[in-house]
Automatic annotation (TrEMBL):
The name this protein goes by in its record: NAD(P)-binding Rossmann-fold containing protein
Keyword NADP included in the entry's annotation: yes
Organism field: Glarea lozoyensis (strain ATCC 20868 / MF5171)
Pfam family, one: adh_short_C2
Any single GO BP term: abscisic acid biosynthetic process
Amino acid sequence: MSGENSRTSSNGAVQTINSVGMGRLHGKNAIVTGAAGGIGLETCILFAKEGANVLMADISAPALEKASAKLQQLVPSAHKVETQVCDVSKETDVQKMVEHLDSWGGIDIMFNNAGIMHADDADAVDTPEKIWDLTQAINVKGVWFGCKHAVLSFRKHNKSRGSVINTASVVALVGSATPQLAYTASKGAVLALTRELAIVHAREGFRFNALCPAPLNTPLLQDWLGDDKPKRLRREIHFPSGRFGEAIEQANAVLFLASDESSFINGQDFVVDGGMTKAYVTPE
Ligand code: NAD
């Protein structure tokens, strides 16, 4: 059941009531895709801490198992946490994943977060067509399927509100001299489709926002940078704060967008980048 910690006034505004001991997502049912990785896993942990029932979905069964064990260990008081293997580029998988929540009372929060950046992604000349297609299939079609089945579930369960958050990237807003054309194009598409869905479904009470993370302090990136100081500096210099972001800093933003505290925030490119996209020169 949604909305146990909030009330809606006659004009549709949602007033959040922070009752003692009640989490910010108390009673809400959430799906997180790409749940076995950095941002997805941190978000599942936070959602569970804040009282949500969470379905953790990912393409990798072993990674999902490890991630769910970590969550159970960190949040022993978690309400309901289940896992589901799902390839977001396959509509039948996504439909099955969302319909899994029918017995929970339907979905309230959909975090379409799964995404790839392929090692063979390059510039206009060198990007292989199959890498382009694979990237669009997961990063764009996967988000579309997630949005589609979230809307169908909201309607099926007569939800008067629902929150969908789609992970884009700062590369949808600024260009990069290290090309990853298929990825950049896919994240631009996520911003565009999110904005349009926000407007189309606004009168139904369904909100759609896009998260734009800057490069993060994840093992993937850090291992790749290794001890190469110039390579590291070339990236760090763009951050006014002088550091990469952390996955938990993205998860905190997702929690806000998922909760009723953000009830009047809709159709936004929600940028969590330490000011990176606002910088001309950065502090010395
Ligand atoms: P991650 O690689 O740690 O996690 C991504 C997860 O998605 C993995 O667990 C992977 O198994 C899963 N996945 C891959 N293909 C899938 C599919 N077809 N179906 C279901 N799950 C699939 O990555 P992350 O850094 O946490 O990234 C999460 C999102 O954030 C992605 O959309 C990514 O593009 C975006 N992003 C990341 C950064 C960064 O620096 N890490 C920056 C900007 C945007």
